[in-house]
Design a protein that fits this description.
Chain lengths: 490, 490
């Protein structure tokens, strides 16, 4: 493909992306394909001779688009949102045109430098303490692939710091703390590193937040039993219900355990710190005062394409001490000192994409006001949704709504005396009916034995009418179920 | 930004990428910026109000492009190549327009399905055994971020398999084998996992390849001393010199250690298997018969954008056993069985970009013949370069050229009696002169105490004239040095 062929194919791609964008509302959210559909449709090997690009571009429309779940669809309320903005598409386009592995400053200075700058812009946007800025030359921020990677990197740094102080502690005696509500990233960090994970209990009464006393008891138990808790992964905005661990209480307990690393996973909720009004309730003061590392994923709710997981650390030296390997062929005159960061020592791998460009484009194109408007629009829509659930005779919230998430269940007033197991069965059936539909995408969860449905708002195209439509179809499915249930029991 | 503004900005981006491509040969390869240049040029925070995109696009040209190292420049001979093709840019463009985190089949079926298909196409392209194909439903292939991640995943799977069989072995007794020539990914896997790494010795006489006998002695020593070697990371095409570990001999020794996982890192050289004539010399028969996992990075020498590190395993269950965490909110009707792969259990994180699209585009647009032509063109250019080094009175090769890499040093016939330390000093000075130039990018290495310069050919734009130019400027710098040296010693 020469430059002129690329120009034609590129214009066409831009046009087709515009068409996709314009047609999104009219498409089903989830797709109708069966496992194996694509293998059946495609040849079993690559062609011998190269094919004309027009054929390939057309096959993308024919085979790929129909097999996608449309995460930017206005009726996508599942999991957490995944950003895809026009500014971000342009950033990925420019970045891919000068591909390089960016593992140190010299490999492509602009990539390292822009990452250092935009991580400071972003820290400021969220109201993070200046000790987390790259310009502090002590702490700093780095873009990771996902919150799992961020938590894994923090855990490796924490373990390394702990073992430096206690070189004779057996790995089997190290303990990583999470709660029962922590994202699977906690358990996975334990699996990857071969370390014991202890999930601390949280209760519905505490809105599934970890309390200081629970941590205190666990630490005493474990230390007395000869174990060495070395990190706690706390959460601001859990995946299941948007719960916020009581970092203020946790920090107070942790004061007596100076080698217990405090990592905060705020993958989804952290971006809401762009709005100052949510900072106190979502524990930013404690994060700024006490936390060793903090993660939020701008690729979720922050108008930046996947992958854009931001990790800030209070002391960069703990990352570098844990991860630095500098062989001869990577030595260069500009090392990992001062402003010339060698980001390869801040993450697990070596090479890295030029991911800061999409942050720069988004932050400039939207401005602080644009980010605030987007976040508050999503929260307003959720407030409206939650209000309708509160007023409903069919549904009730399971735990208090959190930012743009409402966790609810079907609890028909017409069926007042159901046992938990019956309610769970009813809710599983309700969720199954929603999951079978292609005009809404929504996910389930379980909170201490209670099966529930979780609604998260985040697509930029979602407006009030989409929430009304979601409520109407939920009501429709619930009514069918309640009718069936009454007949079965009648 | 609305769709029409995006269309204009998109067309402009395509045009500017064409211009960049056309102007590449005329640019310096490496850039002239100093550490901190970008922080000085940019504001210290994001703007309050969003900015016009034209301003942002112009600032990309003004501030970013001049700070890039141009890895696709025809005179880029440093590190290893990093692909950036027109087809790949288009794939990244389309993929970013429907961003989703693809962590399981349901999250976007086409993403999982296409990855499973193209990893089979790619396995076939390289001549890998069918037991590595996804269609085997026993083994399989997955796209990872980098060879470091691939090696880390293999190490985690190997450790998990070993610990299942030997549950009472302390982590401190586990040993990961590499050689002294293994890429830093081996040492980093050890750091990340907190495990002991033993780098086995290799010699210049063996062209820096690991021999079976060396492994045999190490295994006996370690097992007798109560250690548990559980994985060997072998290399096909080392970073420093393109060395190829003797996997045939290694497999023969490893037969007596059935829990010793054999991982092969062929990050750069593995792609050369697209040409059948290199398969035997680069140990494909042993890989196909004995190896547990195999990695090659198509984003290096395989016409696919970063990140596209391919990892194949003989038994997918070892990955899943080691990494599966399936919380309630990720349970779906299509689980990790048969063809509906849940790729989240095959890598470290959870979310993943839609990276298979760029493989599909590249494989179709170039065809098997296109890949073969690209690889053989690079190798021919290197053969020509190496021939000129052999014939030179200024330079000599340090170890036999490997595919598209030549490692050489300055050994002037006019200075016949230099000690190793003097030769090293001369070569460091020679390399420093090359590194100070902006019309060539090349890297250094050290092979068992000998400082040398490594030349790797891989940019698609490189032609014979570029090699001639590189040789001319190397000669020019060498002559200056030899003159200085003679005067100093004179």
């Amino acid at each position: 493909m020469n430059a002129e062929q690329f120009r034609r194919a590129g214009y066409q791609a831009i046009d087709r992306i515009c068409d996709y964008h314009d047609s999104l509302r009219g498409r089903p959210v989830s797709c109708q394909v069966e496992p194996g559909y694509l293998r059946k449709a495609l040849p079993s090997s690559a062609p011998t001779e190269g094919e004309d690009f027009q054929l390939i571009a057309d096959d993308y429309q024919k085979y790929i688009i129909p097999g996608l779940t449309h995460w930017q669809h206005p009726s996508f309320f599942a999991y957490f949102p995944t950003s895809s903005t026009f500014e971000g598409i342009l950033a990925e386009l420019y970045a891919s045109s000068t591909s390089n592995p960016g593992f140190n400053w010299s490999a492509s200075p602009a990539c390292t430098e822009l990452e250092a700058v935009v991580m400071d812009w972003t820290a400021q946007l969220l109201g993070l303490d200046k000790s987390f800025y790259n310009s502090s030359e002590v702490g700093g921020g780095v873009i990771q692939t996902s919150a799992s990677d961020s938590a894994l990197v923090a855990t490796v740094a924490a373990r390394s710091r702990y073992i430096r102080e206690h070189p004779h502690v057996a790995m089997e005696k190290l303990v990583l703390y999470t709660t029962t509500q922590t994202h699977s990233l906690g358990k996975k960090a334990g699996l990857v590193l071969g370390l014991t994970v202890r999930a601390l209990e949280v209760t519905a009464q505490d809105d599934f937040a970890l309390r200081g006393d629970t941590l205190k008891v666990a630490l005493e138990e474990d230390v007395n039993a000869g174990f060495h808790p070395f990190i706690l992964i706390g959460t601001v905005g859990t995946t299941s219900s948007g719960a916020v661990d009581r970092l203020d209480e946790i920090a107070d307990v942790a004061k007596n355990y100076p080698l217990l690393w405090l990592h905060v996973d705020a993958a989804w909720a952290g971006v809401a710190f762009v709005c100052p009004e949510y900072r106190e309730a979502y524990q930013l003061p404690a994060i700024n005062s006490y936390i060793d590392s903090f993660c939020t994923n701008f690729h979720k709710w922050g108008l930046v394409h996947f992958d854009g997981s931001c990790l800030w650390v209070r002391h960069r030296r703990h990352l570098i001490n844990a991860l630095d390997v500098t062989p001869e062929f990577l030595q260069s005159k500009h090392g990992d000192a001062g402003t010339a960061i060698d980001y390869r020592n801040w993450h697990l791998g070596l090479g890295r994409r030029f991911r800061s460009l999409k942050f720069w484009f988004a932050l400039r194109a939207r401005g602080v006001n644009g980010f605030q408007k987007y976040i508050t629009d999503c929260i307003s829509l959720n407030t409206m949704f939650a209000q309708r659930i509160y007023e409903s005779d069919l549904f009730s919230v399971v735990t208090k709504p959190s930012l743009a998430m409402t966790v609810f269940k079907i609890t028909p007033k017409s069926l007042p005396h159901l046992e938990t197991s019956e309610l769970n069965a009813l809710n599983r059936a309700f969720y199954a009916r929603l999951a079978a539909r292609s005009d809404i995408a929504i996910t389930q969860t379980e909170l201490n034995g209670v099966f529930c449905v979780r609604m998260v708002i985040g697509a930029e195209k979602t407006v009030e009418g989409d929430i009304e439509q979601a409520l109407a179809l939920m009501r429709e499915e619930a009514m069918v179920l309640v009718g069936n249930w009454a007949r079965m029991r009648g």
